[in-house]
């Protein structure tokens, strides 16, 4: 039991196990998803690895140590502000769990804020224009196999209805809602559930997809995943969030909207692996926290830098300045819906935004050029 153990005697495995229990009990009102627990554990392992490089036991960390860790995330790892915010949040939750279990007296990560992102919030919204959406949908497979129908419905519902990756990952057959002739999907977002109404075309595509699965002999029960994996190892299982992202990336690349992944150069070691261990002064090399606890050896946490080789692929849709992803399809749905005349409240309900100010960002993006007040001045600029 932890109450019978000296805190500094706890191994990384002990700390991770107890943190996982804390996350499952404390996060999302005790209903934390498995992928959330995995993300938190991975982030804490990276923090442990940094502590190891500093010859620091995690439970001995001070506020200044957490600030040094933040600096490492900013300067060495070069993470984006949003990523740093997530990592600091997880570290703060780790220490909150340690305080709750009596391992430490105070949370050293409390009050340590991420760096501010000095850009217009609207610039973070990467979306597709209507011709690009058409090109993306035309790139989808036309065969009526389970895989072809799954991909067509998945991409279409995300780009037109703005569903999140996690919502598609969690959706089950029992989440399909029928109201007369209307069909929708009940999705579970970050903190809420809502019904996403399907357009008639999407409803027909969903029925074709489900019928193909029935013909294969699959029993479609209420808890059966709506989107299933089709590889040999996990066939019929729930399609993971990462796999959904891969599906979206595949078709973004096929349309030329996303560059092909860069190949990593072999034989290149990270700087952290080349550093020497400090001596204790008597010729003996000081063992680090992780070396003293061989039960768990997390990776160094070094962020792999992509190759700087430029892609020779060119396409009329390609815009290198954008970093498109599965989440960009959600931005696309919101931006194009407002541009087409939907009001903010309708788009907020569709996307499941808790704060209308989040939805307002899409209006800002959609209207910035069309409703530029300078256009109303009627002043001609000499050319």
UniProtKB/TrEMBL annotation:
<dbReference type="GO" id="GO:0005737">
    <property type="term" value="C:cytoplasm"/>
</dbReference>
<dbReference type="InterPro" id="IPR010998">
    <property type="entry name" value="Integrase_recombinase_N"/>
</dbReference>
<keyword id="KW-0132">Cell division</keyword>
<keyword id="KW-0131">Cell cycle</keyword>
<dbReference type="GO" id="GO:0051301">
    <property type="term" value="P:cell division"/>
</dbReference>
<keyword id="KW-0238">DNA-binding</keyword>
<dbReference type="InterPro" id="IPR044068">
    <property type="entry name" value="CB"/>
</dbReference>
<keyword id="KW-0159">Chromosome partition</keyword>
<keyword id="KW-0229">DNA integration</keyword>
<feature type="compositionally biased region" description="Basic and acidic residues">
    <location>
        <begin position="302"/>
        <end position="311"/>
    </location>
</feature>
<keyword id="KW-0233">DNA recombination</keyword>
<feature type="domain" description="Core-binding (CB)">
    <location>
        <begin position="10"/>
        <end position="99"/>
    </location>
</feature>
<feature type="compositionally biased region" description="Polar residues">
    <location>
        <begin position="290"/>
        <end position="301"/>
    </location>
</feature>
<dbReference type="InterPro" id="IPR013762">
    <property type="entry name" value="Integrase-like_cat_sf"/>
</dbReference>
<dbReference type="GO" id="GO:0007059">
    <property type="term" value="P:chromosome segregation"/>
</dbReference>
<dbReference type="InterPro" id="IPR011010">
    <property type="entry name" value="DNA_brk_join_enz"/>
</dbReference>
<dbReference type="GO" id="GO:0003677">
    <property type="term" value="F:DNA binding"/>
</dbReference>
<dbReference type="InterPro" id="IPR004107">
    <property type="entry name" value="Integrase_SAM-like_N"/>
</dbReference>
<dbReference type="Pfam" id="PF13495">
    <property type="entry name" value="Phage_int_SAM_4"/>
</dbReference>
<protein>
    <submittedName>
        <fullName>Phage integrase</fullName>
    </submittedName>
</protein>
<dbReference type="Pfam" id="PF00589">
    <property type="entry name" value="Phage_integrase"/>
</dbReference>
<keyword id="KW-0963">Cytoplasm</keyword>
<dbReference type="GO" id="GO:0006310">
    <property type="term" value="P:DNA recombination"/>
</dbReference>
<dbReference type="InterPro" id="IPR050090">
    <property type="entry name" value="Tyrosine_recombinase_XerCD"/>
</dbReference>
<dbReference type="InterPro" id="IPR002104">
    <property type="entry name" value="Integrase_catalytic"/>
</dbReference>
<dbReference type="GO" id="GO:0015074">
    <property type="term" value="P:DNA integration"/>
</dbReference>
<feature type="domain" description="Tyr recombinase">
    <location>
        <begin position="123"/>
        <end position="376"/>
    </location>
</feature>
<feature type="region of interest" description="Disordered">
    <location>
        <begin position="255"/>
        <end position="328"/>
    </location>
</feature>
<feature type="compositionally biased region" description="Polar residues">
    <location>
        <begin position="312"/>
        <end position="326"/>
    </location>
</feature>
């Amino acid at each position: 039991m932890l109450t019978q153990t000296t805190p500094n005697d706890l191994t990384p495995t002990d700390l991770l196990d107890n943190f996982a229990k804390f996350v499952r009990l404390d996060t999302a009102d005790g209903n934390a998803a498995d992928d959330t627990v995995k993300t938190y554990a991975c982030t804490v392992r990276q923090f442990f690895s940094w502590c190891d490089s500093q010859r620091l036991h995690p439970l001995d960390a001070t506020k200044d140590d957490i600030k040094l860790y933040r600096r490492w995330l900013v300067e060495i790892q070069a993470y984006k502000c949003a990523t740093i915010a997530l990592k600091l949040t997880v570290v703060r939750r780790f220490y909150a769990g340690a305080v709750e279990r009596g391992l430490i007296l105070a949370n050293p990560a409390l009050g340590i804020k991420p760096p501010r992102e000095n850009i217009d919030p609207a610039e973070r919204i990467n979306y597709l224009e209507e011709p690009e959406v058409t090109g993306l949908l035309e790139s989808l497979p036309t065969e009526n196999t389970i895989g072809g129908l799954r991909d067509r419905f998945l991409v279409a519902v995300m780009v037109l209805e703005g569903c999140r990756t996690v919502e598609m990952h969690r959706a089950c057959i029992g989440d399909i809602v029928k109201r007369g002739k209307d069909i929708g999907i009940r999705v579970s977002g970050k903190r809420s559930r809502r019904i996403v109404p399907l357009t008639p075309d999407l409803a027909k595509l969903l029925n074709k997809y489900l019928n193909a699965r029935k013909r294969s002999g699959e029993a479609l029960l209420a808890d059966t995943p709506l989107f299933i994996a089709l590889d040999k190892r996990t066939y019929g299982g729930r399609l993971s969030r990462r796999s959904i992202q891969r599906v979206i990336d595949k078709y973004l690349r096929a349309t030329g909207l996303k560059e092909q992944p860069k190949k990593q150069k072999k034989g290149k070691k990270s700087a952290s692996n080349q550093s020497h261990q400090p001596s204790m002064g008597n010729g003996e090399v000081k063992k680090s926290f992780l070396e003293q606890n061989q039960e768990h050896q997390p990776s160094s946490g070094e962020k792999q830098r992509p190759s700087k080789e430029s892609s020779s692929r060119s396409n009329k849709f390609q815009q290198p300045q954008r970093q498109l992803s599965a989440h960009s399809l959600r931005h696309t749905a919101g931006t194009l819906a407002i541009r087409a005349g939907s009001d903010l409240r309708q788009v907020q309900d569709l996307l499941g935004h808790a704060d209308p100010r989040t939805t307002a960002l899409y209006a800002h993006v959609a209207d910035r050029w069309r409703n530029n007040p300078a256009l109303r001045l009627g002043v001609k600029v000499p050319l």
